[in-house]
Amino acid sequence: EVQLVESGGGLVQPGGSLRLSCAASGFSFPSAVMSWVRQAPGKDLEWVSTIYSGGRTTYYADSVKGRFTISRDNAKNTLYLQLNSLKTEDTAMYYCARDPYGGGRGQGTQVTVSS
């Protein structure tokens, strides 16, 4: 059974940081292209970032470029997203997924940026 379990979300002040994790199982994680997507209240699902299997090729949405960093540990079957310089507009449920459209995503972890 394919499983993606996100963790690491929380409440943080503007300018703060968080590190999200996604534990993967049930498929060949080291060979999979993985993505993070997010959904803010009342808005559509938004692609955030993608990382290729080797970890060297990464892509970011313009809205997070320079502030977020995607990475992976293939030995631990874990995907990460480092969120820095957080803004109120980053408030959303964050999901890891097996494609950039959110396919096969996990249950999500909530990130709330508020003073």
* Residue share in helix: under 10%
Spatial shape: globular
Distance between the termini: 40 Å
| Count of β-strands | 10
Give start-end ranges of low-pLDDT stretches: none
Fraction of residues in β-strands: over 45%
Structural class: mainly beta
Count of helical regions: 0
**How would you write the strand order of the largest sheet?**
2-10-9-4-5-6
Whole-angstrom Rg: 13 Å
Mean pLDDT: 96
The biggest sheet, with number of strands, parallel, antiparallel or mixed sense and barrel status, is: 6 strands, mixed
Describe this structure in words.
β7 and β8 (78-83) form a beta hairpin. It contains no helices and ten strands. The chain is mostly beta strands.
What's the layout of helices and strands?
Elements lengths: L2 E5 L2 E3 L5 E8 L8 E6 L5 E7 L6 E3 L7 E6 L4 E6 L8 E6 L11 E5 L2
Parallel strand pairs: 2-10
Antiparallel strand pairs: 1-3, 3-8, 4-5, 4-9, 5-6, 7-8, 9-10
Question: What brief labels describe this structure?
Answer:
115 residues, mainly beta, globular
Provide a compact summary of the structure.
The chain is mostly beta strands.
